[in-house]
Design a protein that fits this description.
four-stranded antiparallel beta sheet; 170 residues; Glycine cleavage system protein R; GcvR; ACT-like_dom_sf; Alpha-Beta Plaits
C-alpha cells in the first residue's frame, strides 16, 4: 500500500468532498484521515489516502480531473528524530490582532525544533474594546531534547513582547 496526501483547494461548492471521495473509492483507495474547512468562500482540505501501489498513479491522474484544484503529494522519508519519544504540548493564544503573531509564534517554536502538529486560528470583533482579537489553539510536538519549561519561558517572553496571552493547555 502507498499513502498519498491530498491537498484540496478550490471554490467552495456542494459536492466537492463527495467528488473526491468517489474518485478515491473508484480507484480502490481508502480515506484515512482528513482536515477540511471552508474559509472566506474557498474550500481547503488535506486528506490522507491509502491505495494499492499499482493504482496510485491512476488515482493521482483521476484526481486532477475533479472540478477544482487538487494536488497530490507523496510524503517523503521522515526526518531523523531524537531517540527518546517526543512530547505533546498545547497552548492557546489570545490578544489584539496585528500582523506578525503567527510568524513570531511559529518562528519561536521552529527555532527550538518544535513542530506544529495542529493549529486553528480566527480573528473576531472584540466585544467591549472594539478592534479585532486574534485567537489560536496550537498543538505541537516537542523533541525530547527540548526542555518544556524553557519553551514555556520563551513563549511567555514572546507573549509579553507581542502583548498577547499564552495559556498552556496540558
Amino acid at each position: 500500500m502507498t499513502t498519498l496526501v491530498l491537498t484540496i483547494v478550490g471554490d467552495d461548492r456542494a459536492g466537492l468532498v463527495a467528488a473526491v471521495a468517489e474518485v478515491i473509492e473508484g480507484h480502490g483507495g481508502n480515506w484515512e484521515n482528513s482536515q477540511l474547512a471552508e474559509l472566506a468562500g474557498a474550500f481547503a482540505g488535506i486528506v490522507e489516502v491509502s491505495v494499492a501501489s499499482d493504482r496510485a498513479d491512476a488515482l493521482r491522474a483521476a484526481l486532477t480531473q475533479v472540478e477544482g484544484l487538487v494536488t497530490v503529494a507523496i510524503p517523503g522519508t521522515p526526518a531523523a528524530t531524537d531517540a527518546a519519544p517526543a512530547r505533546r504540548f498545547a497552548f492557546q493564544v489570545l490578544g489584539n490582532d496585528h500582523p506578525g503573531i503567527v510568524r513570531e509564534l511559529s518562528s519561536t517554536l521552529g527555532a527550538q525544533g518544535v513542530s506544529i502538529e495542529r493549529m486553528t486560528s480566527e480573528t473576531k470583533d472584540a466585544a467591549m474594546a472594539g478592534g479585532r482579537l486574534f485567537e489560536a489553539t496550537i498543538s505541537a510536538v516537542v523533541p525530547a531534547s527540548v526542555e518544556v519549561d524553557g519553551l514555556v519561558a520563551e513563549l511567555e517572553r514572546l507573549a509579553h513582547e507581542l502583548q498577547i496571552d499564552v495559556t498552556r493547555l496540558d
